[in-house]
Amino acid sequence: MSSIDRQQLGEYLTAYLDGELEAQEAATVEKILEQDAEAKALFEELSRTASLVGSLPRHQAPASMMEDIQRHIERDDLLGNPSQAEAVSPGRHRSWRPLLATAAVLAVIVGGGLWAFVELGGRTGIGAWQSVVFNDPKDVAPVEDDVSPVAPRTRRSQNKAALDEGKGPRAKGRAEKTVAFRSTPDGVGQDVAIVPITSKRRVSTAEDDREKRLADVLTLDQKIASGLSGRDALDHHFVNEVNTLRVGLSGEADRAAAAEKFTGYLRTKGVVDLRRVSRRRGVEKNGQESRQTFFLAGRAAVNFPADGGNQILVRVPADDIEDLVAELSRSAPDDRETVLRMGPVVGRGWDQTRDLVARISKRPETPVTDDRHPQPEPTKATLLRTTPDTEEFAGAGDAKSDALMELMAALGIDEETVTLVHRSVAERHKEEHHSDIFLENAVVHSEKDSRVADAPDSAGVTTEEPTRQVADHSPASPRAAGRARRATKVAAAPAEESTELQARQAGAPKEVRGKAPESDTIAEKQSAALPIVPEHVPLIERLLAELDSTSASRRIEGTSLVEPASKISGNKARDVMTPGDVLFRDDRPLMKVAEAADAPEQPERFVTLVVQFATLPVRSQVTPGTETPTKPSTRRGTGADKRPSKPANKPSTDGSDSDPQAQ
Amino acid sequence: MVECPKQTEGPASNRRPRPSSFEDARLVEQVQAGRTEAYGKLVEKYQDRVFNTCWRISGNLEDARDLTQDAFLRALTRISEFRGQSGFYTWIFRVAVNLALSHRRKAKRHQPVSLDLSDGAVGTQAAALAKRVRDVEGENPSRAVIDSELQGKVVAELQALDDDQRAVIVLRDIEGFDYQEIAEVLDIAIGTVKSRLHRARMVLRTAILPFLGRQ
Predict the structure, then answer these.
(1) How does DSSP assign A7-50, residue by residue?
(2) What is the pLDDT of residues A79-116, one digit of tens each?
(3) Which of A55, A61, A76 is the closest to B10 by Cβ?
(4) pLDDT reported for residue B171
(5) Do B32 and A87 touch (CB under 8 A)?
(6) Is there a contact between B112 and A268 if contact means CB atoms under 8 Å apart?
C-alpha cells in the first residue's frame, strides 16, 4: 500500500468507508489515516458526502402502484403474452372479461357511428400535419380550392382511389402543398398555415404495412374518408390534427390574465416559446422573405398575434394534455364557452373536455383531479354519433348504457324492458363506479342470485322454467356452460323494478306497477329480487352469444378500448411483450417486438392544441333557450330535435366558415 | 399526474436490512406455478425501494412511477426465466436500474429546451426541495436554510453525475447495496464498482465542499 497513488488511496478510503476491505487492507488504511492528515480530511469529507446522499428524503411508492400493475397484467393477458400467461392464475380472467365484453359492444357501436358518419357525409381532413408555417396574414396562400369541403362521397372516393393506387391521402396532401387556415370568426388561422408532412418515409406496397403507417399519420377525418374500419378509428389519438380548445373568461382583463397564466404554466412545463426558437433557427428561405418555417418536433407553444394574442398554439406530449386541460379549467371555471374540437368530435363543457382529452392521454382511466370540478364518476372517452352537421361526444358511462340499450333493442327486447334493465344496472353500480362492467352486469350477475333459482316469484312465474330451458341446451363447452348459467341470472333489478317487470309480463294493470310487495320472509325477498321473465331468456341468450362471439374475434380491439393509448402499436407495446413476440390482429401479424438493442426508438406522441381565450357573454343577455346544454343528448338516431343546440355566440360548425378541422 | 407520494424519513443507516432470499425464492416459485397473489407480495415488499431507486436515477417522480411499474411488469413477464441464481431482490433492481438508465439516455436525446428555466428539471427539483425544506420551521432557521441548500445541491449534483456513476452511488448510499450486489445489479466487476463509486463521491464532495465548510 505504500506505493499507492492518491487515486488508489481514494478508492481504498471509499472501500474502507463502506466496510469492503479485507482486514489486512483495512488495517493499512487505518495506519495511513493516523499518519496522513490530508488522507484523513479526505476520508471525513467522503464520509460526509456518503452520509448526505444517504440522508436524502425518500418517498413511498404511490398507493395505486399495486392496482396499476395488476391492471397492466390483465392487459398483458389480453394481449396474449405467453410467458406471462404461464405466470399468472387463470382465475383472474373473470376480472377483465366485463371490460372485454363492454369493449366489444363499444366497438360495434362506434364502428356503426363512424359508418353512419361516412355514409351520411362528413368533412374531410387535409394532411398529416407535422410542421407549422407562420405567415403574415397577407402571405397566407390562397388555398381555398384545395381545402374547401367537398361532398363526402366525392372526397371519400378520391381518397379511396388514392389508397388503391398505393398513395393514400398523404400523397394527396403532398400534392396540395400548403394548406392554410382561413380566417374565421374565432380568429383561428389568420396567420397560420399548415404544411403537410414531407416525410421521406417510403410507403410500402404491402397492404398491412400501409394501413398501419396510415393509421399512424392520418387524421380521424382521413381515416373515415379513406374507408378504414371503425376499429382503426378507435385507436385514434388525435395527434395528427390541430385540435382547438376554446375557453371563456368573464372579461377582457380576465382573458388576458388567463392567457398570461397559461403561458406561465407552459414555461414551468418546459414548453418552448416558439418565437424564441425561431430566432435561433433562423428563417427558412422559401422564396418569400416574410415566410418563417418552424418545425414542431417536440414541446412547443406560440402566441398568435391575432385576436389580441389570446390564442396559444401548444404542442405537448399526449401524456401532458390532461394536466394542461386541468390547468385551464382552473383558470376558466365557467364552461359555457368551453368547446374542444378534435377532428370531427366536439366536447362541450369541462366534463366532456376532460373525457375527450383522456382519450388521447397516456392513462385515460385516471380521472383528472380538479377541486373545482370534481368528476362524479370515472369515465372513458369514446367517439359516438358523428353526423354531417352535428357532432356529439359522450362519456363512457353514457356510451355503455346506450350500447346496452341499442344492442338489446337490436335483439328484439322492447324499449321499456331495456330501460328498466339499464336503470337497474346503473343504480346497482353507481356507488361503486363500476362503469367499466356496466354491460356485463346487465346480463351477468353474482352467484347469490342463483341461490334463489327455485323460488317462485311474486307474479307466479317460477325460475325453474328458464333454468330448464337453458339446461336443456346441454352446453358442451365451459364457455357455453357459463353462458347458460349466466342466462339464468339475468335479473338483478331492484325489487321495485323487478316487480314492475313481472307485473308487466303478467299483464297487470299499469297503475299497480312499480310497487314492490312487502316481503316478510327471506324467500319472499329473494323471489322479489328475481324478476326472470321466461320470454326474455332466449333474447338474453342471443345477447350473450353476440357478446361472446364479438369478444372472441375482437380481443385486440377490446384491449385497445380498455386502454386506448397506443397499447397495441404505440410506445408501450414493447414494454409489455417479450422480444420476439408477434402481435396479431385478425390473424395478421401487426407488429413484432424486436430485441431491445434492435428495437427502433418510438417517438413520443405529441398533441397539437390551439387554446383560445374567449370572452363570455353576459348572462343576462343570453336569450333563454339558446344556452349551451349541460348534457348533450347521447341517443342515436333521435333526430335533430334531440341534438344539443349551439351556443348563442358560437360560430357555425357546418364546416363552411369556422371550423379549422373542416378545412 | 402522479399522486403525491407520502414523504418518509431518511434512512438511519445506508445499510438496509437484507431481505430474506428464502422467502423471496418461495414466492417466486409460487408465481412460476401460477399464483399471481404471490407476485403481489413481492411487489408490495420491494415497490418502495425500487421506486426510490428509480426516482433518484431518473430524477423525476412521475417517471419513477412508470419505471417501477414497468420493472415489475417486465420481471413478471420473464419470471419463468428466473432460475434463482441471484436473489429476486437483486434481479428486480437489475431490471429497474436498467430501465431507469435506458430512460435517462432516451430523455437526454429528447430533452426539451427550457429558455426561461435555465436550470431545467434538476434545478426545478432542487428548488422545490429547497423550498420544501425552507418551509419547515426549525429551531435554527439559518441552519435549516444551509441544510436545505445543501440537500438541494446534493440532489442537483446527483442528477448531474454520469449515469453509471449515479447508479452506483444510488445503490450504495441510498439503497445500501454492498459492492457484490451492485456488481450483480449492474453486471460489472467489483473493481469497477469501487472506482465508479469513488469517482462519484469525489465529484459530489467537490461540489458540496463549500457547504461543508459552512456547517
Answers:
(1) HHHHHHHHHHHTT-S-HHHHHHHHHHHHH-HHHHHHHHHHHHHH
(2) 555 444 444 433 333 333 344 444 444 444 444 444 43
(3) A55
(4) 92
(5) yes
(6) no
* Residue B118 contacts A where some CB pair is shorter than 8 Å: no
Task: Give A-chain residues touching B10 at CB under 8 angstroms.
Answer: 54-58
Is A639 part of the contact surface with chain B (CB cutoff 8 Å)?
A: no
Interface of A with B in 359-378 (CB under 8 A): 362-363, 366
Q: Does A597 touch chain B (CB under 8 A)?
A: no
A210: closest CA among A239, A242, A179, A232? Answer: A232
- Using a CB–CB cutoff of 8 Å, tell me whether B39 touches chain A: yes
Kindly give the pairing relationship between strand A311-317 and strand A300-303. antiparallel
Among candidate residues A150, A204, A145, the one with its CA nearest the CA of residue A158: A150
Distance CA A14, CA B194 (A): 8
**Among candidates A133, A202, A117, A121, which has minimal Cα distance to A168?**
A202
In single-letter form, the type of residue at position A534 comes to: P
A276 — contact with chain B (CB < 8 Å)? yes
Interchain contact, B36 vs A89, CB within 8 Å: yes
Minimum CA–CA partner of B157 in chain A: A53
Highest average pLDDT, of A133-137, A411-415, A607-611, B70-74, comes from B70-74
Q: Where in chain B is the domain with CATH 1.10.10.10?
A: 120-214
Q: In whole angstroms, give the CA distance from residue A263 to residue A259.
A: 6
Q: Are A62 and B3 in contact, with CB atoms under 8 Å apart?
A: yes
pLDDT tens-place string over residues A236-272: 777 777 788 888 888 888 888 887 788 777 766 666 4
Q: What is the pLDDT of residues A486-505, one digit of tens each?
A: 333 333 333 344 344 344 43
Asked if the interface predicted TM-score (ipTM) of this complex is over 0.90, the answer is no
Q: Is B40 on the interface with A (CB under 8 A)?
A: yes
The answer to whether domain B120-214 has CATH 1.10.340.30 is no
Residue A606's pLDDT band (cuts 50, 70, 90): confident
B81, B194, B204: residue with CB nearest A53: B204
B52 interfacial to chain A (CB closer than 8 Å): yes
CB-based burial, A627-643: b 16+ in 10 Å, e otherwise: ebeeebbbbbeeeeeeb
Q: How close is the nearest chain A Cα to the Cα of B41, in Å?
A: 10
User: Which pLDDT band holds residue B169 (cuts at 50, 70, 90)?
Assistant: very high
Cell numbers found for residue A571:
410506445
The segment(s) of chain B belonging to CATH 1.10.1740.10 are: 21-109
Q: A584 to chain B, minimum CA–CA distance in Å?
A: 19
Nearest CA in chain B to A83: B77
Nearest to A486 by CA among A434, A533, A451, A450: A450
Query: Looking at the domain covering B21-109, what would its CATH class be?
Result: mainly alpha
Cell of B163: 449515469
Q: What is the residue extent of each domain of chain A?
A: 6-49, 123-387+603-662, 400-552
Interface touch A322/B1, C-beta < 8 Å: yes
Q: Do the beta carbons of residue A191 and residue A81 sit within 8 Å? A: no
The whole-angstrom separation of Cα A511 and Cα A379 is 37
Grid cell 314492475 is found at A500
* Chain B residues closer than 8 Å to A88 by CB: 34, 36, 39, 76
**Whole-number Å distance between alpha carbons of A247 and A42:** 60
Residues within 8 A of B (CB atoms), A 286-305 only:
298-299
Residue labelled with grid coordinates 308487466: A504
